Amino acid sequence: MTAEVEQVVRGGLDTTNQFAAKLKHDPGALHGARDGHVALQTSVGQVRDQAGVQRSQLADSASGYTADRAAATSQGLEKEIQDLLDESAEIEKAVAAAAETLHVGEIRNDQLRDQIVREIAASMKALKAVNGIQPPESRAAAARQILLQLQTKIGQLTGQAATFSEQTINQLTSLGRQLAGSDSTTTSAASSTHVPQSFNSNGAHAGGGGGSDGGGGGFVGKPRLPVAIPPQPGTGVDINLPGGRTVKAPNETAAKAVRAALSQLGVPYVWGGTARGQGLDCSGLTMTSYQDAGLQLPRTARQQTVGAEVPSIDQLLPGDLVVWSGHVAMVIGDGQMVEAGDPVQVSKIRTTNAGQQFIGFYRPTG
């Protein structure tokens, strides 16, 4: 096996192996936790029922201020027990949902890894057959074509694996937030587009409780990047927006990326999609649009926090990325962004997205 072939094979399997490590869990421990809460609910439920019986007996056999206070105390205890039962039931459901989410994620990742292995095996067989091609000088071109096709297929499959993994992590994060009560954010806070200066400062990069893949509290694995420098007045590259307005991108690369993204308006949403004109997911849209502009971005939304940070919404320029823990969109100017909804569409710039954690604004071109 040549070094080039070995690199393609190793790279194809490394990605799914990394995702498998992220999704690794102990099913027995999860089932044990769930069963433990079921047992707790049974035991505590019996205590609640017993307290209710005793309160009823007290009301039947006694009267007066002391009896009323005792009954009220007993009723308060019953409510606290019921609250504990409700909380335990929520935790039990969350544990069961987490176990199912991880199980499905593992299955999907394993299926993609098996498909990659099959693609590699078929390509190795085709490479072996190349030795019989005549004339001999045509063999190198044929082998190269086989490797290019294999790289393309592996890229598509690892992109799907990245999306599956990201969705699994986001589902687990959502479950954690529901248990923590973090979905009870007030409307005014949830709709705010103000990003405090400290949000994008280097001192705010340490996550509070979720690690690099997101979690209940704190920030989501923010990279330590320089702050984007605003362009000088009178500089920039013109872009004509669909509504007729003309805006200025900071440079030609950003302008080309915005034009490429806008050319995909109306394209259907496809999970893991990177096929322009056919089907795209959120990070597939931004990645391929910048790819058309000559800049290679990472595959997933969370990884597209590259270049420089934009400290506030009023400093955003066309081509900047708006990144959440499981979604990404591209700023096009005039207070708007383009994103892969269903289909690809233009929306107003926002910092909320279906309960996902907002990470920040980024300028890939620095």
Strand order of the largest sheet: 5-10-6-7-8-9
Rg estimate, integer Å: 27 Å
Shape: flat
Termini gap: 40 Å
Number of helices: 7
* Percent in strands: 5-15%
Task: Summarize model confidence as the mean pLDDT.
Answer: 77
> What structural category do the secondary elements indicate?
alpha+beta
Q: N-to-C SSE series? A: HHHHHEEHEEHEEEEEE
How would you sum up the major sheet? 6 strands, antiparallel
Number of strands: 10
The helical percent reads: 40-55%
Q: pLDDT below 50 for ≥5 consecutive residues: which ranges?
A: 182-220
Chain-wise SSE layout:
Elements (H helix, E strand, L loop, with lengths): L2 H21 L3 H35 L3 H66 L8 H42 L6 H4 L46 E4 L5 E4 L2 H11 L11 E2 L3 E2 L1 H11 L15 E3 L10 E4 L3 E6 L2 E5 L3 E5 L9 E6 L3
Antiparallel strand pairs: 1-2, 3-4, 5-10, 6-7, 6-10, 7-8, 8-9
